[in-house]
Amino acid sequence: MIVMQKANRPSTYSTLDESLLNGIPPFSMLDPKQIRAILDLASSRRHAAGASVFEEGHDADRFYLLLDGYIRVVRITADGEQVIVLHIPSGQLFGIAKALGHDTYPATAIAATDSITLSWPTRLWDSFVAQYDGFATQSYQTVGARIGEMNTRIVEMATQQVEQRIACALLRLINQTGRKVDGGIEIDFPISRQDISEMTGTTLHTVSRMMSAWEKQGFVESGRKRITVRDPHQIVILSGAKV
DNA sequence: ACATTAATTATGT
DNA sequence: ACATAATTAATGT
Length: 243
What we know:
CATH superfamily of the largest domain: Jelly Rolls
CATH topology of the largest domain: Jelly Rolls
Radius of gyration: 19 Å
Structural class: alpha+beta
């Protein structure tokens, strides 16, 4: 979480630095030799903002670790509407359909910013789980948290009003992908009103109105594809959370 | 309490 | 200059 890498992007892909996986949960209990072995099996790719890493329904031939950037997980509803399921910050695994018993990807993954991923063939998942101690528990821990998040999101959709839903969405964003700036927390990647409406099941207009209202009250500050939460506490109150 | 439509303005490349 | 994003008001369910 403190890692602010910018300096050394791997310009050559021959060998990957072992420090890349240091402190990343699924690998944090492994010794350097094991990490070396895992890295040698990985392939690194760069994804431009907006490009898809994999698509819903396709064969889940690889699973991924996000090294840098942000990934948006998106699903299309029956009537063709995009729904943003969740955002993934760097350092997390994704596309692990195998772990959930699927052989195709259940959703589409799109790079929200320029991103760098490592990926492995899906068939290696079982051997990772088998031979690396703690790999399974630590990955399922993050997966479990994610599923929990999706579930509470569904409950929110059904029960809460839009104002509270948008507030909740903002809170999640600043929790997972927030960056501290002076006098607030800024969402660390470009996010439009449309995006937020797709996360909360409303329209961009309603989001726009809410944001304008909150901005007048000094809770948030926003520009084109940028949102800064100036007063997180107020947003918590608006979200109707049980403290 | 919210969506939809439409018109207008701002912003980034 | 052009496309994309944001705002705002009016109207509809």
